[in-house]
Amino acid sequence: MTMAPAAQRITFLGLGKMASYMLRPLLAAGAVDPSKVVVTRATQQTLDEASTMFPDVNATLDNAEAVANADVVFVGIKPQDFKSVAEMVHGKIAPHASVVSLMGSITIKQIQTGFKHEPVMRTMPNVPTALGLGVLPYYPSAEMAEHQVANVRALFAVMGTDFALPKEAQMDMYGRISEDVASHKGPSDPPRHSQQDTSFSAKAHPTLR
User: What is the pTM of this model?
Assistant: First the structure.
Protein backbone atom coordinates (compact mmCIF):
# COMPACT_ATOMS: atom_id res chain seq x y z
CA MET A 1 0.00 0.00 0.00
CA THR A 2 1.34 3.42 -0.95
CA MET A 3 1.80 5.70 2.05
CA ALA A 4 2.02 9.49 2.21
CA PRO A 5 5.33 10.76 3.69
CA ALA A 6 3.63 12.04 6.85
CA ALA A 7 2.22 8.58 7.56
CA GLN A 8 5.55 6.79 7.28
CA ARG A 9 7.66 5.80 10.26
CA ILE A 10 11.21 6.63 9.28
CA THR A 11 14.51 5.60 10.83
CA PHE A 12 17.90 7.05 10.03
CA LEU A 13 20.31 4.30 10.98
CA GLY A 14 23.39 6.42 11.55
CA LEU A 15 22.62 10.12 11.12
CA GLY A 16 25.80 11.12 9.29
CA LYS A 17 26.31 14.17 7.11
CA MET A 18 24.48 12.90 4.04
CA ALA A 19 21.64 11.44 6.09
CA SER A 20 21.18 14.78 7.85
CA TYR A 21 21.01 16.45 4.43
CA MET A 22 18.04 14.19 3.68
CA LEU A 23 16.30 14.76 7.00
CA ARG A 24 16.48 18.57 6.90
CA PRO A 25 14.10 19.21 3.98
CA LEU A 26 11.67 16.57 5.23
CA LEU A 27 11.32 18.50 8.48
CA ALA A 28 11.55 21.97 6.97
CA ALA A 29 8.72 21.20 4.55
CA GLY A 30 6.61 19.60 7.26
CA ALA A 31 6.48 16.52 5.07
CA VAL A 32 7.03 14.05 7.90
CA ASP A 33 5.77 13.74 11.45
CA PRO A 34 8.83 14.28 13.73
CA SER A 35 7.31 11.95 16.32
CA LYS A 36 7.54 9.14 13.74
CA VAL A 37 11.22 9.80 12.96
CA VAL A 38 14.00 7.96 14.80
CA VAL A 39 17.72 8.68 14.41
CA THR A 40 20.68 6.74 15.76
CA ARG A 41 24.31 7.60 16.39
CA ALA A 42 27.23 5.53 17.65
CA THR A 43 28.05 7.42 20.87
CA GLN A 44 26.15 9.45 23.46
CA GLN A 45 28.10 12.57 22.49
CA THR A 46 27.18 12.34 18.81
CA LEU A 47 23.62 11.39 19.73
CA ASP A 48 23.36 14.53 21.85
CA GLU A 49 24.62 16.54 18.88
CA ALA A 50 21.92 15.03 16.68
CA SER A 51 19.28 15.87 19.28
CA THR A 52 20.51 19.46 19.33
CA MET A 53 20.24 19.71 15.54
CA PHE A 54 16.87 17.97 15.34
CA PRO A 55 15.20 18.30 18.76
CA ASP A 56 11.75 17.12 17.71
CA VAL A 57 12.75 13.66 16.46
CA ASN A 58 13.45 10.56 18.55
CA ALA A 59 17.13 9.72 19.14
CA THR A 60 18.58 6.46 20.42
CA LEU A 61 21.78 4.43 20.59
CA ASP A 62 19.80 1.19 20.16
CA ASN A 63 19.92 0.33 16.46
CA ALA A 64 17.77 -2.79 16.78
CA GLU A 65 15.01 -0.90 18.58
CA ALA A 66 15.22 1.94 16.05
CA VAL A 67 14.51 -0.27 13.03
CA ALA A 68 11.93 -2.59 14.56
CA ASN A 69 8.81 -0.58 13.66
CA ALA A 70 10.10 1.49 10.74
CA ASP A 71 8.44 1.66 7.34
CA VAL A 72 11.60 3.09 5.77
CA VAL A 73 15.14 2.69 7.09
CA PHE A 74 17.76 5.05 5.69
CA VAL A 75 21.23 3.59 6.28
CA GLY A 76 23.67 6.45 6.81
CA ILE A 77 26.52 4.61 8.50
CA LYS A 78 30.04 4.46 7.11
CA PRO A 79 30.86 1.40 5.00
CA GLN A 80 33.52 0.32 7.49
CA ASP A 81 30.84 0.13 10.20
CA PHE A 82 28.47 -1.98 8.13
CA LYS A 83 29.49 -5.36 9.52
CA SER A 84 29.09 -4.39 13.19
CA VAL A 85 25.78 -2.59 12.64
CA ALA A 86 24.45 -5.46 10.51
CA GLU A 87 25.02 -7.81 13.43
CA MET A 88 22.83 -5.54 15.59
CA VAL A 89 19.89 -5.32 13.17
CA HIS A 90 20.11 -8.73 11.47
CA GLY A 91 16.54 -10.01 11.15
CA LYS A 92 15.14 -7.10 13.20
CA ILE A 93 13.64 -5.03 10.36
CA ALA A 94 9.91 -5.47 9.69
CA PRO A 95 9.24 -7.49 6.51
CA HIS A 96 7.20 -4.69 4.91
CA ALA A 97 9.92 -2.06 5.43
CA SER A 98 12.16 -0.61 2.74
CA VAL A 99 15.87 -0.24 3.45
CA VAL A 100 17.50 2.69 1.63
CA SER A 101 21.28 2.65 1.76
CA LEU A 102 23.49 5.71 1.40
CA MET A 103 26.64 3.61 1.75
CA GLY A 104 29.14 3.61 -1.06
CA SER A 105 30.76 0.30 -2.11
CA ILE A 106 28.34 -1.88 -0.10
CA THR A 107 26.16 -3.76 -2.58
CA ILE A 108 22.48 -4.59 -2.34
CA LYS A 109 23.35 -8.26 -2.00
CA GLN A 110 25.65 -7.54 0.92
CA ILE A 111 22.96 -5.50 2.64
CA GLN A 112 20.32 -8.17 2.06
CA THR A 113 22.60 -10.80 3.57
CA GLY A 114 23.88 -8.66 6.44
CA PHE A 115 20.47 -7.30 7.45
CA LYS A 116 18.52 -10.45 6.52
CA HIS A 117 16.13 -8.25 4.58
CA GLU A 118 15.19 -8.31 0.90
CA PRO A 119 13.58 -4.96 -0.12
CA VAL A 120 16.67 -2.77 -0.43
CA MET A 121 17.39 0.37 -2.44
CA ARG A 122 20.63 2.26 -2.90
CA THR A 123 20.85 6.00 -3.38
CA MET A 124 23.45 8.74 -3.10
CA PRO A 125 22.18 12.25 -2.35
CA ASN A 126 24.23 15.33 -3.12
CA VAL A 127 24.78 18.46 -1.04
CA PRO A 128 21.83 20.53 -2.38
CA THR A 129 19.54 17.82 -0.99
CA ALA A 130 19.78 19.76 2.27
CA LEU A 131 17.80 22.55 0.61
CA GLY A 132 15.30 20.30 -1.14
CA LEU A 133 17.18 20.83 -4.41
CA GLY A 134 19.07 17.57 -4.57
CA VAL A 135 19.62 15.06 -7.33
CA LEU A 136 19.09 11.52 -6.09
CA PRO A 137 19.97 8.54 -8.27
CA TYR A 138 18.49 5.30 -7.04
CA TYR A 139 18.60 1.59 -7.76
CA PRO A 140 16.08 -0.79 -6.12
CA SER A 141 16.46 -4.49 -5.56
CA ALA A 142 14.25 -6.82 -7.57
CA GLU A 143 12.45 -7.68 -4.32
CA MET A 144 11.12 -4.16 -3.80
CA ALA A 145 7.43 -3.95 -4.68
CA GLU A 146 6.13 -1.04 -6.73
CA HIS A 147 4.38 0.52 -3.73
CA GLN A 148 7.62 0.35 -1.70
CA VAL A 149 9.53 2.17 -4.41
CA ALA A 150 6.70 4.70 -4.59
CA ASN A 151 6.81 5.29 -0.83
CA VAL A 152 10.53 6.04 -0.93
CA ARG A 153 10.21 8.23 -4.01
CA ALA A 154 7.53 10.26 -2.24
CA LEU A 155 10.20 11.13 0.33
CA PHE A 156 12.77 11.82 -2.39
CA ALA A 157 10.33 14.26 -4.00
CA VAL A 158 10.68 16.53 -0.97
CA MET A 159 14.47 16.36 -1.19
CA GLY A 160 14.81 17.15 -4.89
CA THR A 161 14.73 15.25 -8.17
CA ASP A 162 15.31 11.51 -8.41
CA PHE A 163 16.06 9.17 -11.28
CA ALA A 164 16.57 5.43 -11.64
CA LEU A 165 19.93 4.01 -12.63
CA PRO A 166 19.96 1.11 -15.10
CA LYS A 167 22.83 -0.63 -13.27
CA GLU A 168 23.73 -0.80 -9.59
CA ALA A 169 27.43 -0.50 -10.42
CA GLN A 170 26.84 3.10 -11.51
CA MET A 171 25.90 4.09 -7.98
CA ASP A 172 29.47 4.13 -6.75
CA MET A 173 30.41 6.66 -9.42
CA TYR A 174 27.74 9.04 -8.13
CA GLY A 175 28.88 8.29 -4.61
CA ARG A 176 32.43 9.38 -5.32
CA ILE A 177 31.19 12.62 -6.89
CA SER A 178 28.94 13.40 -3.93
CA GLU A 179 31.65 12.66 -1.38
CA ASP A 180 34.16 14.83 -3.23
CA VAL A 181 31.76 17.77 -3.46
CA ALA A 182 30.63 17.40 0.16
CA SER A 183 34.23 17.42 1.41
CA HIS A 184 34.74 20.86 -0.14
CA LYS A 185 31.33 22.52 -0.21
CA GLY A 186 29.19 21.00 2.51
CA PRO A 187 26.94 23.37 4.44
CA SER A 188 27.81 24.37 7.95
CA ASP A 189 26.09 22.80 10.94
CA PRO A 190 22.33 23.20 10.54
CA PRO A 191 20.18 25.37 12.78
CA ARG A 192 17.91 23.83 15.37
CA HIS A 193 14.66 22.53 13.94
CA SER A 194 11.41 22.61 15.82
CA GLN A 195 7.76 22.39 15.00
CA GLN A 196 7.60 26.15 15.37
CA ASP A 197 10.75 26.97 13.40
CA THR A 198 11.52 24.60 10.53
CA SER A 199 12.89 27.16 8.09
CA PHE A 200 16.06 26.40 6.22
CA SER A 201 17.21 28.96 3.67
CA ALA A 202 20.10 29.39 1.28
CA LYS A 203 20.91 32.72 2.97
CA ALA A 204 22.32 30.81 5.92
CA HIS A 205 24.35 28.60 3.58
CA PRO A 206 25.93 30.76 0.89
CA THR A 207 28.05 27.86 -0.36
CA LEU A 208 24.88 26.25 -1.73
CA ARG A 209 23.64 29.23 -3.78
Answer: 0.85
